[in-house]
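Handout for the seminar on molecular recognition.
Each group receives one record of this type.
Step one: identify the two inputs.
Step two: read the structure output and locate the region that could contact 5'-deoxyadenosine.
Step three: write two sentences on what you found, then compare them with the reference statements printed after the record.
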Amino acid sequence: MKYHIITYGCQMNESDSERVSSFFQENGLLEGDEEEADVIIFTACSIRQSAIDRVIARGKEIKKKKEKPVTILTGCVLEEDKKSLSSIFDYILDINDLPHWPLPFLSKSSKQYFEIVPKRNGISAYISIMTGCDNFCTYCVVPYTRGRVSCRPTKEVLKEVEEAVEEGHKEIWFLGQNVNAYKEELTFGELLKETNKIKGDFWIRFTSSHPNDFTDDMIEAMKNCKKVTNYLNLPVQSGNDEILKKMNRPYNISEYKKIITKVKEEVPDVFISTDIIVGFPGETEKHFRSTLNLFNEILFDMIYIGKYSPRKQTVAYKMKETVSPSEKKRREKVLNELLKESNLEKNKQYIGKKLKVLVTNSNSKGLLVGKTKNYKSVSFKGSKKLIGSFVDVKINDYSLWGLKGTKIS
Ligand code: 5AD
Ligand code: SF4
């Protein structure tokens, strides 16, 4: 039997898919293309309606096929959506219950979800250190699809890192909806420091963080631990205090800026990315302008912009939408333009610099592509054999979204 996995959403979903893949292979199934698969697994994202709409469209397409494979929906699925989705997919199954999925071709395992060793990609290892979220931002489905916070034991996490490094992975991504709320034998800052002690040549990254759980310990780790990268994703969501309050984000902009200032002061060449929602209910032009002002002060290196999408089960679902779809689009574009301008200016400064790059892939132009320690994209000419290794590159050109260079041999 053959299976095929279609993944939507974030790295957490990627990581889920890696465990599904491994568990199916343990049960004797082989990975195959979509056309030849007997089973298709969708690892879904429910953050925005558009994400779940894509899953529905793909599911419907497959349902029309003459020789239809078995379809399974898992990942982040809202309880309220399950009824309508059950007419499209054969099974809707809880990812945390993977070892016990009631499928005739899988034997039930006595293992727990995290005991399944994921089938990793050989370069970047995604390691979930916690799941769920207790923050209940008013727009967000995560506390409903993933449940409350649950942290994995520190020993188990460190063991998984050691295994991944032994397998040759060069980048460890600690994943969680709110990684800095991690608390087990160690706190998150301590976990970073402990992971840094593991022998091997690799980088440590983490996402996503919440400003309220941010600690000086994390800054120390980014500053002093050689393997901890100078990359921080710290979602702000809005640049306006009133909107933050309506979003149930328990910090204000002045507190957020204090964190960023400190990080910039302490961590050399730090790359800061953030998440911003445009068009939250009640967001006026004035509120939006505060977000633009915040951008101009911080000059984020990357923004993941989301047009607000009302989601069932959340508190904001009951708030009246006040921003039209076209206005959301406009706000997204304005913010994007600012980001582009600032990126272009910043990328220019890299000309002539020598940077260490982890090669992760090759692009359609046949160039190798990778990331620097601070998560800048770099492309350069080289043999595909270099994929998965660190290479020193001298930067001699740049574009909007990245740097170009030549390999230093
Ligand atoms: N609408 C738009 N964006 C959302 N996000 C979460 N929920 C919504 C929503 N309902 C964004 C937030 C979060 C990121 C993962 O997705 O910015 O940080
Ligand atoms: Fe969602 Fe992140 Fe807020 Fe948790 S902290 S509710 S995952 S946006």
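Reference statements: The chain is about 30% helix and 20% strand. The chain has a mean pLDDT of 96.
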